[in-house]
């Protein structure tokens, strides 16, 4: 299913008067509105192929119907999101869940939908049907060299698929670790993992990056071999200049100061990619901005400040991706909400008066520093984000159009009620 451009324009037209009033107000309130609008239009967030179906938990899964049955249908779904918000112009694939049978056709279909291929994701956290050796006790850390070899070869195969599609990054997330004290020799696990990653790194094309994603716990509950940003940075530093740390918001212990982690990784030139989601307890994979919006703002504030300090391009110099999937919402509505939350928070971070903040910091004026940050956070930037979206050809209110056009009902009609997206 597609939503015609004229339909989106019709809906926009109905809202125009009210929108213009709100836009005039905010443009009056803030400095450099046009510059912010351009940055918002340039900023794209990649959608992972596994977020298009209803997520499951280990207790159950409640499908909503009309889920994409193939890579082609996943691209179609992201194309719908992008048509509505003009900010979801990339897709991140997971191998082996989304092996492109015919790379040229898949590339052409993505291009028709205005999408490019973001980072490729490998999977050595599950055993696949027919797989020779098991990852039950880890993949790249494994005591058996043959298991490590299998994991290395899988990652090299993922790079090969990525090259065919025009991707330029590989994200490696390992579930390797241990569940009980004594199970694992920590240094040996690290060295095996480093050696395996080095062999994958050696197969990276010159223009590619490797993202080493860390996670504090789950599925292993005693130790994780890439467990925090320190360990990831250690691997990335040992690997070389094409290797970076990837920060996933849900992969920290409770109350970790993620904004400080981001600031220091940027300082070291080692922040490569970012996975957005939100959480209350652990890796809850909830909608971005739904639980801790102020934390998200503080993180974005450091991202903008740190990238500007290094002269980085916000839109292109980091890999931005949503990594969330859960049980109770229509996945496409959830993704529209997540992208909206990201754009709103990015806009607020762009508004922060950094010169004043710097002065407050140098004067130890703690009260003023808080006032400056919260003034930005409490600014209603919804009209700015909507304006950027409309100028790019999207909808002023994407979620409202999605519902009025009965997208989910149409997808269920087309695909059926009992479909299950691959990989979940
Ligand atoms: Mn992730």
UniProtKB/TrEMBL annotation:
UniProt keyword terms in alphabetical order: Isomerase, Manganese, Metal-binding
Highest taxon in the source lineage: Bacteria
Gene3D superfamilies linked: Divalent-metal-dependent TIM barrel enzymes
Family annotation (InterPro entries): L-rhamnose_isomerase, Xyl_isomerase-like_sf
Molecular-function annotations in GO: isomerase activity; metal ion binding
PANTHER family: L-RHAMNOSE ISOMERASE (PTHR30268)
Name of this chain's protein: Sugar isomerase
